[in-house]
Write a structure and sequence with these properties.
heterodimer, A: 332 residues, alpha/beta, D-Maltodextrin-Binding Protein, domain 2, two-stranded parallel sheet, 12 helices, 46% helix, 20% strand, B: 501 residues, mainly alpha, two-stranded antiparallel sheet, 21 helices, globular
């Protein structure tokens, strides 16, 4: 009697597992046979290569309802974290090119992964079809309000040309790290980057006086600047950030302009039917440009910066070129 | 007086009907999230944030915070009953909590956890209320050298968990450190031991390691035993600690509270550090340390309390500096910002009604959890007496679903099975698995802190010894090690004397 019970349970369990696996494969095949009469008819999956609750996840979930409105089908945000983003990104590139699966790329993270010689990845930039850029967060260089050695960016650069100073970074060849490397490369400063697990840790080390300069992004720094906890002395963008209207850009101060930002944009696997691609691109453009969406993003401290597919591709290629150029400083 | 007045105003807001309801929903959801392994508190909180968009900010944070501390209670239940720890700190609770459940004392273990968690949580919140502003300096004085010394001190505590054989303990520690090395190196970006597998670029996931080594291996051992020599599940014996257990438990709870609170102040500390320190402190202070690992009540009471007061203490860096001390805290902070509340020194001034209402609601939420858990501990404990034949498949199924949910892929399920098998073999070989899981976590943190120290001080190790806080911690590590070596010699002598007699 008991044995049958267990066998039954086990069977049910196995059948359940199999069904779950089959479910993933089946609709894709069916879709391929049908022609693109009215795309999309089925839910669109948006792969996010980071955990639920992270920055990219929040970005995706804020866009989700607006994209649903444009496409007329449900949009699912699917978190596939792991491998510093490469698990999710590889899955986007390897997805069935039927337009049902798209996802977010994060740059320069993806660019540094492509350049890193020890990172054995299966995909390349050419495996992605760019759709649109969604948000951009420029780099922010901040000093402590009570630092007696320098009080603005010019003084900081002067000081750092003569003396070694430490800066924070969150990931090798990540956006923060690249800011430091570009400053050293173009302005001749002697900054030494110290790697931290994330912004929370780097901020704590900076406020505690263990590291001299905080290099982070505008989105992470602007409210602390307003609160007077730190002083953002320059941003690494072409134009001033709407979140920090009084903070100059590096170029504005008469230096070699340094442009470094982190972007999150949408891509699809290559090989999608051009008509479907157009549908996706148009829907994304409308959703991203939607005013209500932009207001929501501003509320959470994220700057929407729409770029169309072509511009977004150039942006990614530029990031890749930048990291390639800094290979020597990275020791790669 | 001023603070007291503000807190009373906070209670007035927190005790309104809707906020009470939200706190209740929060703790209940949190309990559920905690009970189901895999979907951790950070993901659970993150997924519910969109539900709070339409809510008043105070109610939203009351509910989300309740999910967070509710999940702590829930996690204890799974750990004690079936030895499937969902997060790092639970590993410690399982050391004595699970043996207690095997002896039919699951109710007692859960009861004392609920009481300890309540006291730890509430006292820590009182601490936040009273001393918050003064503590900021202490929190920030922890730089990379201090972190390194703190984690090294934590590692010396792991020695205490090694069990009977030092060599087996060393094997476990080294395996843990080896596992910690997988993935991208913190300062150079070099990918280590990935063997071209994308999933390994970031190294292993703690949840798969812990659920495999503890949960699945335990089931495999249990199945083997059932086939050989079926035993009945333990009958549930009572809910309350015996009279002679009250006093040591109370002392453990007191020590755990203080320890956890101060650890919570230091941003970037994992909750496993206070739990581990509390456990080894209890073991050292106990009259008969050999009871530990076999169901000593202090081994559950201390760490569980420390874990919860850590959470309370961690509110100080979150509120005052905007620095979250864990992934879940980071999600909570995201919710703050979403609702227009920027954590930082100005939060207490600009939104003082909000801060005090949330703090007051934490008193209430913790009290709710205590009243939900004490009577329910008996009900939960009955799960431990479900026949193994029914219990095992359910645990396996839940574990598999839980690990699948980490990254929506079968990779982590494979990891669970692999580490389950490894854990089974190790248990057969008498190699303790707890040090593996703990050094895995601490190893990653230690490497990072060391490399940061070297980067800041141009390759010099000296600051680790010469900076006052770091130096003190290093000295404590040396003392702790010498003590255990001395104790080891003494034990050996005693054992020899015994065998000769």
């Amino acid at each position: 009697m008991n044995k049958r019970w267990i066998m039954g349970l086990l069977l049910m369990f196995i059948v359940g597992l199999l069904a779950a696996c089959a479910e993933e494969a089946a609709p894709a095949e069916a879709e391929a046979e049908e022609e693109t009469a009215a795309f999309p008819e089925e839910p669109i999956n948006v792969i996010v290569a980071y955990d639920a609750g992270g920055g990219t996840d929040t970005t995706a979930r804020t866009l989700q309802p607006f994209l649903e409105e444009e496409l007329g089908v449900p949009v699912n945000v699917v978190n596939q974290p792991g491998g510093s983003g490469w698990v999710g990104w590889t899955n986007i590139a390897n997805a069935e090119p039927d337009g049902q699966t798209i996802g977010y790329l994060n740059s320069p993270n993806v660019a540094s992964g492509l350049v890193n010689p020890t990172l054995e990845r299966e995909v390349d930039l050419s495996d992605f079809e760019t759709l649109a850029n969604h948000v951009a967060d420029p780099g922010a260089i901040a000093i402590r309000t009570d630092d007696e050695r320098f009080s603005n960016f010019e003084e900081l650069v002067e000081y750092a040309k003569e003396n070694e100073l430490t800066t924070t970074a969150t990931g090798v060849a990540g956006d923060d790290h690249l800011v430091t490397l570009k400053l050293n490369d173009r302005l001749g400063t002697k900054f030494r980057a110290v790697q931290f697990e994330g912004t929370a840790e780097s901020r704590a080390a900076f406020l505690g006086g263990h590291v001299d300069v905080l290099v982070t992004s505008v989105g992470e720094a602007y409210s602390m600047d307003e609160g007077g906890q730190l002083d953002v002395v320059a941003v690494t963008a072409e134009e001033r950030s709407p979140f920090l209207p009084d903070t100059p850009t590096v170029g504005e101060l008469g230096f070699d302009p340094i442009i470094q930002q982190s972007t999150r944009g949408l891509v699809a696997p290559v090989g999608i039917d051009p008509e479907k691609l157009e549908v996706l691109k148009a829907a994304l453009e409308n959703a991203i440009q939607n005013e209500e969406h932009q207001t929501k993003m501003t509320e959470i401290g994220t700057q929407v910066q729409y770029a169309d597919a072509e511009e977004y591709r150039q942006l990614l290629e530029q990031d890749l070129e930048d990291v390639e150029g800094l290979k020597e400083l990275l020791g790669w | 007086m001023d603070t007291f007045g503000l807190l009373m105003e906070g209670f007035a807001i927190a005790l309104s009907w809707d906020n009470l309801l939200y706190a209740l929903i929060g703790v209940s959801v949190g309990m559920l999230v905690g009970i189901l392994p895999g979907l951790g508190p950070s993901a659970g909180t993150a997924l519910l944030i969109p539900l709070t968009f339409g809510m008043d900010p105070t109610s939203a944070i009351v509910m989300l915070a309740a999910i967070f501390y509710g999940s702590m209670y829930g996690g204890t239940i799974t750990t004690v009953l079936v030895n499937v720890p969902g997060e790092a700190a639970s590993v410690i609770t399982g050391l004595d909590g699970y043996p207690m459940a095997q002896q039919g004392r699951a109710g007692v273990a859960l009861g004392i956890s609920a009481i300890g968690s309540f006291i730890g949580g509430v006292v820590a919140i009182i601490g936040v209320v009273l001393v918050a502003p003064m503590m900021v300096k202490f929190a920030l004085s922890f730089g990379p050298p201090e972190f390194f010394a703190l984690i090294l001190f934590g590692l010396t505590m792991v020695v205490g968990l090694a069990g009977k054989s030092v060599i087996r303990g060393m094997i476990a520690v080294l395996i843990g450190l080896l596992l910690a090395m997988y993935g991208m190196a913190p300062s150079s970006g070099v990918v280590r031991y990935s063997f071209g597998i994308t999933h390994l670029i970031d190294g292993f996931n703690f949840v798969t390691i812990a659920m495999g080594l503890f949960g699945l291996s335990e089931i495999l051992i249990g199945m083997e035993q059932q086939l050989k020599n079926p035993i009945k599940p333990p009958a549930v014996k009572g809910m309350f600690p015996s009279r002679k257990e009250w006093k040591p438990s109370a002392a453990s709870i007191g020590r755990g509270t203080v320890l956890g609170f101060f650890m919570g102040l230091i941003p970037g500390t994992s909750s496993v550090v206070p739990a581990l320190m509390s456990y080894s402190m209890e073991k050292r202070l106990a009259k008969d340390p050999s009871r530990f690992g076999k169901g000593a009540i202090e081994g559950v009471a201390g760490p569980e309390t420390a874990n919860n007061s850590f959470t309370g203490g961690a509110l100080i860096p979150l509120f005052l500096l905007g620095i979250p001390s864990s992934a879940t805290m980071a999600v909570l902070m995201g919710a703050f910002i979403l609702h227009g509340l920027q954590p930082g020194p100005t939060l207490f001034i600009q939104h003082s009604d909000f801060v005090w209402a949330v703090l007051a609601s934490m008193f209430i939420g913790n009290a709710m959890l205590l009243f939900m858990n004490l009577p329910m501990a008996g009900m939960w404990a009955k799960i431990a007496s479900v026949p193994f034949k029914l219990l095992f498949p359910i645990i396996i199924a839940v574990s598999i679903v839980g690990t699948y949910s980490i990254s929506n892929s079968l990779w982590d399920v494979g990891g669970l099975l692999f580490f389950g098998l490894v854990g089974y073999l190790f248990k057969k070989a008498d190699i303790p698995v707890a040090p593996i899981a703990l050094t895995f976590i601490l190893g990653v943190m230690m490497e990072e802190a060391l490399l940061q120290t070297l980067a800041i001080y141009k390759g010099s190790f000296l600051p680790i010894f010469t900076r006052p806080l770091a130096g003190t911690l290093m000295a404590m590590s040396v003392i702790a090690l010498s003590l255990s070596i001395y104790a080891g010699f003494k034990n050996k002598k005693d054992n020899l004397a015994d065998s000769e007699a």
